Amino acid sequence: MPPSWTKTVPQPSPEKSKNPVTVLVTGFGPFLDKFPINSSWSIASTLPSILPATESHPVPVRIIVHHEPIRVAYNSVLDVIPPLLSNVCPKPDIVLHIGLAAGRTFYTVEEGAHRIGYDAIPDVDGHQFTNEQANKRWPNLPLVLKTGFKPEDVWQRWRKEISHLSVDVRPSEDAGNFMCGFIYYTSMAEYFKLDPYERPVIFLHVPDLPTKEKLDQGREVTCALIRAIVASKERYGAGNGAEENLNGEVVQEGRQETDANFSVT
User: Which parts of the chain are coiled coil (predicted)?
Assistant: First the structure.
């Protein structure tokens, strides 16, 4: 079956047409010997540049993918993400980071990320990002930042979009204590410094997708998520992040201590 965005679909009438929404997408490079191809970049690098408006999706979507995978290194994220968010043109309405959760068979949309806790797992350069470094870089930011979108609404819309597929998609509260959580917090921190309540950033974890069939399905699942985010943003905006304690006194009960990728056996 061809991907849904290639099908001939009914077009909305001109009077119902809306301005396009711009979505900036990133994916990561390889970092696990057992999984030399990172599915997050396989998906991101093959996304269509346009999701056209339809009767059921009146908002057209322009997708801009960062030109290369983000290196799985703390310094690389810090070197790339803040300038990217400041300089990309047109300015994105939505930022979608995609990362690999190799030990899973399902997709998750992540609600938030932590400021600290990235000192447990070395990156591809053998470096960690200590709590001291995090507190120095983000001294007045909350310990937890959450997306400005409504995760439950996004998830429900996403499920509806892919109801014809046999795919497991789930909500998740925490992007983990490695590069996925780190890039998520880094992006949200950039927006938080401009407006504490406007965080149009969200994170998608994808499983390993070793075959063309699974990759094609993963691309369709991702396009469906983008449609869901756009629709949710139209309804609720991107200023719905929880009012985190600005002093950083956030209860972290239940946080996973090991990133999903490093529970792989």
Answer: none
Check whether domain 13-250 has CATH 3.40.50.10840, yes or no: no
The answer to whether the CB of 43 falls within 8 A of the CB of 219 is yes
- Rounded to 5°, the CA angle 48-112-165 comes to 45
Buried b (16+ CB within 10 A) or exposed e, 184-209: bbbbbbbbbeeebeebbbbbbbbbbb
Residues in the chain: 265
For the stretch 115-171, pLDDT in tens is 999 999 999 999 999 999 999 999 999 999 999 999 999 999 999 999 999 999 999
Residue 29's SS3 state is coil
pLDDT of 80 higher than 60: yes
For residue 60, give every residue at least 6 positions away whose Cβ sits within 8 Å of its Cβ, in sequence order, or none.
17, 18, 20, 21, 50, 51, 52, 53
Q: Are strands 169-174 and 201-206 parallel, antiparallel or unpaired?
A: unpaired
Q: Radius of gyration of the chain from Cα atoms?
A: 18
Q: Where are the domains of the chain?
A: 13-250
